[in-house]
Amino acid sequence: MIDGPERSNASMRARCPATSASAVNVPASMRRASSAIGSSNTSHAGASLPGDAGAASGFVSSVIVLLSLTEYMNDNGARSARGHRTESRRPPEDVPMKSTTSRNLPALANLVALEATVRKGSLTEAAEELCLTQSAVSKQLTELETFLGVRLLDRRKGGVVATATGVEYLKRVRQALNLLEEATLEVLTGRASGGRLDVSVPVSLGNIWLLPRMLQFAKQHPQIQLNITTKVGPVDLLHSGLDAAIMYCGGPPPGHFGVEVMPLELFPVCAPDRLPRRGTLSQALRHLPLLHQQTALDAWPAYLAQIGAKVARPGDGPRYGLLTMGLQAAISGMGVALLPDYVAGDDLRAGRLVRLSDTSYLSPKSYYFVCLEEKRANPTLVTFVDWLLQTANADAG
Is residue 338 within a helix (H) or strand (E), and if so which, with residue range? Predict the structure, then answer.
């Protein structure tokens, strides 16, 4: 495939001491693996990892991503070969397909060599970064192409570039290498012994209710790393890479496990200076616009019907995407908003808002903790759910 003059081992050792700095964008753990493994395709079954089952599970889940890379190539290799005749190269009949395991998984060192070669655009520079000879890197790339049965690289004047197939394959290889490095670092730092969760929450619930209480969770469970992100609307747990989500919904979707964390109970509020002294809800409804939440547009019509109030056009009025936006609009005097206590409570106690009725509206939807059915028994996830429910119940009580 790609050949070059083999450099002496002494010269390579001089340029690549064991303490050499890590190059940008190349996982450190992957470089160590490449140096240790070289061009070998031998795997060592039964090697143990530090940490408990949670650490092993996190590491294995990252390795599974590598399996999907090869399955992707097996599924698409034939189509790619038909669409790019110049890239297709079936392995010779006398060269057996090699694998580091009994499954369709190429050698990790070969994937590292591919990533470094394409990023550097040079076989020589990739060899220097990986502390290998140029011929060793060339051999690794040849083995990978032979294993996949598809040409991944083209040598052009001035450097090496990936073929169209190589570009697509490398996108997923880089994702897999990043996941492997992240899992490795978690094991090395001890974080994986307690586990890690990536959870999505609604913006307002996360900022106002959950995050101020996260210190309690961190103190009670310092071994668990909890990563929080926010999203408006439904969360695709199947493809997002998240472990779980708190969603405002009517219940978990099919194939998911869900438990209700808290209901959404709304009541009318407005700025005190928009009402005459001892003003009433009826006065507010006659003179002030209704402020709507984009995710609960049925709330005002349902609440008005519940209390028997008549408003000419209950659907009129500004609409806001977040509860916190509706809160600020109400404080600034824009109109009357239906808000939950966890959003409006502090401003009610500070006198920036007034509650206009003791009657609340209970939304048919609630905040649910949702995860994929197969993850519901995950010990780290169970620990977080238990804490979440205890905290929500304590606030409600």
Answer: strand 336-339
Report strand pairing: 361-372 vs 256-270: antiparallel
Between 268 and 56, the higher pLDDT residue:
268
pTM over 0.90: no
- Neighbouring C-beta atoms of residue 297, cutoff 10 Å: 12
Q: Which of the four pLDDT bands, split at 50, 70 and 90, describes residue 190?
A: low
pLDDT(364) > 80: yes
> Within this chain, do residues 370 and 390 fall inside the same structural domain, yes or no?
yes
What residues pair up with 337 in beta bridges, in sequence order?
Answer: 269, 291
Tokens 């070059």 identify what position?
Answer: 4
CB-based contact 338:268 (threshold 8 Å)? yes
The reply to whether 325 and 347 lie within a common domain is yes
Domain count, the chain: 3
* Final residue belonging to a domain, choices 141, 174, 192: 192
Domain with 253 in it? 193-261+366-396
pLDDT tens digit sequence for 96-122 = 445 555 678 899 999 999 999 999 999
The pLDDT of 320-336, averaged and rounded, is: 94
Residue 101's pLDDT is what?
A: 57
Phi, psi dihedrals of residue 291, rounded to the nearest 5°:
-100, 125
Cβ-proximal residues to 216 (8 Å cutoff; 6+ apart), any chain = 387, 391
Coil, helix or strand at residue 176: helix
pLDDT, residue 94, reads 42
Residue 108's contacts (CB-CB under 8 Å, 6 or more residues apart) are 30, 33, 34, 37, 66, 100, 180
Give CA–CA dist 200/234, Å, rounded: 10
CATH number, residue 243: 3.40.190.10
Nearest to 267 by CA among 313, 223, 299: 299
Does 277 reside within a domain? Answer: yes
DSSP 88: B
